[in-house]
């Protein structure tokens, strides 16, 4: 089974969102991630990358315009 950790990239700093994500589902306006323990989170941010070699996915928070 392939598992990845989900991170949020904000201001060039990554913060862990969820560990051991094994399921990602795209809905109409959000992404649902679920880990092996049945925990779920709904993300309303763009997915920047998924790197299975590094076991990670990165969501990015858009920069605020002044």
Structure, described:
This protein has strands spanning 4-10, 13-26, 31-35, 40-43, 47-51, 56-60. It is built from no helices and 6 strands. The chain is 0% helix and 61% strand. The model has no long low-confidence stretch (mean pLDDT 93). It starts with a strand and ends in a 6-residue tail after the last strand. It has a 6-stranded mixed beta sheet, with no helix packed on it. It is globular, with a radius of gyration of 12 Å.
In brief, what are we looking at here?
This protein has 66 residues and is mainly beta.
Order of helices and strands: EEEEEE
Q: What structural category do the secondary elements indicate?
A: mainly beta
**Biggest sheet: strands side by side, in what order?**
4-3-2-1-6-5
Radius of gyration: 12 Å
Count, helices: 0
Beta-strand portion reads over 45%
Rough shape?
Answer: globular
Oligomeric state of the chains present here = single chain
Overall average residue pLDDT: 93
Helix content: under 10%
Low-confidence stretches: none
Strand tally: 6
Please give the largest β-sheet. Answer: 6 strands, mixed
Query: Termini separation (Å)?
Result: 44 Å
Topology, pairings included?
Layout: E1 4-10, E2 13-26, E3 31-35, E4 40-43, E5 47-51, E6 56-60
Parallel strand pairs: 1-6
Antiparallel strand pairs: 1-2, 2-3, 3-4, 5-6
């Amino acid at each position: 089974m392939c598992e990845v950790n989900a991170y949020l990239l904000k201001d060039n700093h990554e913060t862990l969102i969820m560990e051991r994500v094994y399921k990602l589902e795209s809905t109409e306006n959000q992404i649902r991630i679920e880990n092996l323990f049945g925990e779920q989170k709904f993300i309303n941010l763009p997915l920047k990358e998924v790197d299975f070699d590094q076991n990670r996915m990165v969501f990015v928070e858009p920069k605020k315009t002044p």
